Amino acid sequence: MNITISNTSEKPIYQQLYEQISALILRGELGSGFCLPPIRQAALELRVSVITVKKAWEELERSGLIHTVTGKGCFVAEFAADEILRIRDDMILKQMKSDISYYKSLGLTLAEAIELLKKIYASP
Amino acid sequence: MNITISNTSEKPIYQQLYEQISALILRGELGSGFCLPPIRQAALELRVSVITVKKAWEELERSGLIHTVTGKGCFVAEFAADEILRIRDDMILKQMKSDISYYKSLGLTLAEAIELLKKIYASP
Amino acid sequence: MNITISNTSEKPIYQQLYEQISALILRGELGSGFCLPPIRQAALELRVSVITVKKAWEELERSGLIHTVTGKGCFVAEFAADEILRIRDDMILKQMKSDISYYKSLGLTLAEAIELLKKIYASP
Amino acid sequence: MNITISNTSEKPIYQQLYEQISALILRGELGSGFCLPPIRQAALELRVSVITVKKAWEELERSGLIHTVTGKGCFVAEFAADEILRIRDDMILKQMKSDISYYKSLGLTLAEAIELLKKIYASP
DNA sequence: GTGGTCTAGACCACG
DNA sequence: GTGGTCTAGACCACC
Question: Are A66 and A57 in contact (CB under 8 A)?
Fold first, then answer.
């Protein structure tokens, strides 16, 4: 499941977890019904606290991306094909609005933004 | 000097202050030599603690955007005309790299990104 | 971790702290990964305010000598063996340039300076 | 009298004044009996406050380098030839002791110090 | 438990 | 008047 956690990052660990797993689901790499590892096992593998994993799982459930069955485990929710796209687009839209308000505040024009975007997208 | 502070924002107050004032300087609205309001006065007007304002001012100084003269006040630093552009571009580049790595992780293509960018830039 | 604070010194307390701890790190007495005492505990032991300790710790982080993990503590950064020497030499060079410009302004010759240097270095 | 004042320096202005004038006296460029300019004139020329100049003059008097005659002006004190050397050496010794304790705290050896000293003295 | 932020209020140095 | 430092004490986020 290729998750990487940085202890030195400014972002809280639970949020790093949340972002990476939600990305896996929204890109379709974790399909509907997929069973996430138990929090204790995930905590061991990622070398983080159980509490931290639990918090990330809770956030995922709150976003409607997973679905907890007590005593069974946590499963990726069932999505209609277009529903998953809608959720993804909402997340991107929300984020991009915030990003762009920052660019605008520094006086970046649309043309400059597009040029930069192309350049950065091209690099790995 | 239109500064707006949100006490409920996730961002710390001193950082909101830092971002807004650095934007004013980088957009050229506060020219070289401009004297910022005294920290005590700014604290009163913004209804925050003196220390919070000071912390923001310190960050501005650390970034080289202002310089402090004890007993006199805090002044916007002297910039070569192109230097200010270079600083602005560095800030934008750094931020955009981080933003785009998020878009990519959600599988957004360059074409989609540009389209969204245009749409959001158009709205106010 | 022998730290001594003088309340009567002209130097601010946080700077005394910064200088002594950075010296410990640069001399290699606090190795990579070493965990500094929690700021509240350090404040108690040194009989200064928590905020004063925090300010010193922040300066250390800004210099890249330590890194802070929220909820965990503050750890001496990982250095390549020669990197730590480079940082030390930069600090000494910068300081010595300033010192020597003062000696020169008082008309001290190189020969006199070396002689004095030897004499003072010999004394404890 | 070639005095240069930096408003952006970390050093207080009165101390910059004090250091530069005491250097002029100790190097012998301002001989015994030389009359310093009136504080109001000096303040005008240096574009600093009268209070600041006064403070510097007072420090000079306290060090025994000048001598104020009310209603007449401030005059460089009378020194025996060797006395001026003694004062200069005291000042340098005091400063160098402090400087060297810093070098030692960073683990700089005497040999390294001498080498650096030669290198920096050679450069302008 | 840890660090992160914010507050109100005090005293000092500088100009 | 300005900024610089320090204090005690509070609340929050994270682990």
Answer: yes
